[in-house]
Amino acid sequence: MLSRTGQIPSARRPLPQDAVDRPLAAFRRDYADGESTGRHSHARAQLLFSLSGVMRIATDTASFIVPSGRALWVPAAEPHSVLVAGTVRMRALFLREDAARAGPAGVTVMATSPLMRELILAACEEPLEWDEHGRGGHLAALLIEEIRRAPALPFGVPEPREPRLARLAAALRADPASPLSLDDWAARIGASPRSLSRHFRAETGLSFGAWRQALRLAEAAALLAQGVPPARAAAAVGYASAPAFGAAFRAAFGVTPRGSEGRTVQNRQ
To answer: What is the pTM of this model?
Structure first.
């Protein structure tokens, strides 16, 4: 089959999907809660999709939360690691260089249409070297077009690299509901608020407040995907007001928290 359960992808042990002479090849594997791939890369671009659970993908410059029903585009040779929350049923596509031109230039969380989802699942039933003039060829052509048209979603959070800012970011990731202000954090890391604000923007491209909101909303999306009710997800990431959370979530992702929760997919395949 084009998508076979195999070893965890690794730069040291390339998968057949990294080299097969087809525009794309599919791969599937189920991961247990808490399992991690470790840092690795692939010769080809990937589209990672989960039928259930939440994938947390870290690159050298950002972290991404990918709830079930969404996908992550990873360019060729991009080092990354995957940590799963809940049982994750991953379905992935590996794209040859010519086909990968349909995707974005950088790591991107993408919305997946119902058609794209079904095409990914159908590709997983094809042999590794599918008939280029038959069903496999038609599926590949449609998948490439769906990838080209897929909207990007703001589920990525830039990661500061400066050691003090990295410690701050790790603390907020561990406790996104922390009420500490910019002044409080500045005192904790030994910097002035103005200096902290300037360095944070230089490192991430965002103000401290915008970065913290992006983190909180991404973490809330992960909770919603695991079945946590919107009010509880809002409180868990630091929103005292459910309406304020709903407005911020809708502005960022284009759907209400309850609408996002309802997109969790746990049926076939």
So the answer is: 0.82
